[in-house]
Amino acid sequence: MTLDDAALERLVEASRAGDSQAFGGLFDHFHGPIYRYIASRVQRPSDAEDLTQLVFVKALEALPRYESRGIPFGGWLFRLARNCIIDFVRTRHEHAELDAIGERQGPDAGPDEIAVNREDMDAVEAAMAALTDEQRETIALRFFAGLSAREAAEAMGKQEGTIRGLQFRAIAALRRELGVEAEPEPPRIRTVDEPNQP
Amino acid sequence: MTMNRNLTDDQIARRLAAYADARLSPSTQASARMRAQVMHAAGNMPARKAARAAAPSRRPLSLAAYRARFGGRSRATAALMAAALSVLLLAGVAFASTAGGPLYGIRLWVESVSLPSEPGARADADVDRLDARLNEAVGAAHDGNGSGTAAALAAYREILEDALNAASQPDARSLRLEAALARHQIVLATLLDFVPEPARDGLERAIEQSDKAVNDIEAGNGGGGGSGGGHPAVHPTPRAPKERAPGPTPKPRSGGPSQGDSGKPSN
Q: Nearest 5°: CA angle at B160, between B156 and B162?
């Protein structure tokens, strides 16, 4: 479900006025990104599901107090999600159960394809583990949840420039970890007018 | 060199997106479960809001009416009593007009007579009413209210007939209805797990009817071509409930990083 900013604003206003259908629209729009962000932070799918529900219920309660004032709704919602994750990690011992996160293959994926994909996913997971916590969170917000830099900045309580810097460094680290190197520049052909370089 | 770096950054972005799709996205069933729970919580919102809104909007009227009759000391008490009465009245009406309540039929009738006559607006209103009935059914099922669930599902089936007639031509309206029904099928299938027994029969009929409606719309659109180009993005995927297996997962929002925005800080 894709919504432009104006449609999103209308849904937020209607939800604030108590329109549960409008809130359903907000859920449809945001639940996937919110779930992905949470799943990248808490590991267990069942916890991600519970926390996603909790975020939306909290949003429902907090909506009357939400005032746009230039703050993107997505950023506000993800800040709620971030606080929920912090509370969750603080109050419960987080046991990473990486095996519990089973990737879903397409129905036509054969064993080779599954094996290749699994290796690829494992490589990405290992590369993510090499990032700092802030870099990992930036990647989760920007690439897993699809937030803009401004929304990610709002969610993390940082400046937009800081987010861009974190993302830049995270991508550079991922590039190293994943072995994705920039192709060498093709040799430059010297023109006849150019003087010989030593 | 910048171009090469952009290329590699796009590769990274694609791998991250593939990773998120494969390992971090909710299954169709999980999405339906979460939606049902959240909508149940949201379903209680209008009554709370109405009760909250009633007091400030009615207080000035009550004060004005009582100011002439009573002295200053009793004004506040009178206003409070009026507000409390209003809240009680609203709560009573809200309770009676919930699914299966004595005023539910009247509410549905009022809804139906106030539908817009313009075909496009009518079809849109029908989709909204279908959403509302489904949410009522989920809410009633959560409360273990069998008669309420059955009443909401019966109303759902009735509106579905209307909606099918209103969206009989293959156009954007029928596609919107199809998209809504695809979403409803997931919720209806989820309801099977916890629907009260008295409403099970009605639920199964609602599932059959929505299934048939989707087939009818697809046939009207040229035999299943509806999910191709121009079809509104449906989330979760329409066929997932029948397959009972995890379907394709939603993509990250379009507003996020894309080519040229990945990895490289701009501005």
A: 120
| Among B170, B183, B169, CA closest to B127 | B183
Name every residue whose Cβ is closer than 8 Å to that of residue B131 and which is 6 or more positions away in sequence: A21, A24, B180, B184
Encode pLDDT of B180-215 as tens digits. Answer: 888 888 888 878 888 888 888 888 888 888 888 888
The predicted model scores a pTM of: 0.49
- B249 to chain A, any CB pair closer than 8 A? The answer is yes
Which amino acid would we find at residue B49? K
Which sign, positive or negative, has the C-alpha torsion B193, B197, B198, B203? positive
Instruction: Tell if the CB–CB gap between A35 and B30 is shorter than 8 Å.
Output: yes
Asked if the model's pLDDT at residue B138 lies above 80, the reply is yes
Interface test with chain B among A38, A143, A159, by most B beta carbons within 10 Å? A143
- The chain A residue lying nearest B9, using CA atoms, is A171
**Residue A160's CB: how many other CB atoms inside 10 A?**
16
Among candidates B24, B37, B267 on the partner chain, residue whose Cβ is nearest the Cβ of A40: B24
10 Å Cβ neighbour count for A186? 7
Instruction: Give the residue from A149, A54, A188 showing the smallest Cα distance to B41.
Output: A54
Residue of A49, A145, A164 lying closest to B26 (CB–CB): A49
Sign of CA dihedral B220, B224, B229, B232: positive
Cβ of A167 under 8 Å from any chain B Cβ? yes
Please provide the DSSP assignment of B92-108 as one string.
HHHHHTSTTSTTHHHHH
